[in-house]
Amino acid sequence: xxxxxxxxxxxxxxxxxxxxxxxxxxxxxxxxxxxxxxxxxxxxxxxxxxxxxxxxxxxxxxxxxxxxxxxxxxxxxxxxxxxxxxxxxxxxxxxxxxxxxxxxxxxxxxxxxxxxxx
Length: 118
Description:
- The model has no long low-confidence stretch (mean pLDDT 87).
- The chain contains no helices and 12 strands.
- 0% of the residues lie in helices and 58% in strands.
């Protein structure tokens, strides 16, 4: 069994997510720095859904990325903007029963997405 942890250091983001074993040992990383799908700029929060997919708030890319247990990209959505479905520095994420709640920080709102089929 593995635990997933977002990595950040003071003032800088490491631009990837670390996966640790149940014994808190490094297993592997998800992503690299960049702005293409599967790449990250300042991942700030994550949650794991019932299927084991990791839902990551890719804050400085203004999007949400979902990665499966095999580190394959399942979905990437959002993008910079103020309209519904677009994000401006999304930070916190949580999900329950296929509904994803995203704190859309600089838009001063919580956005709700259906991720049931992800």
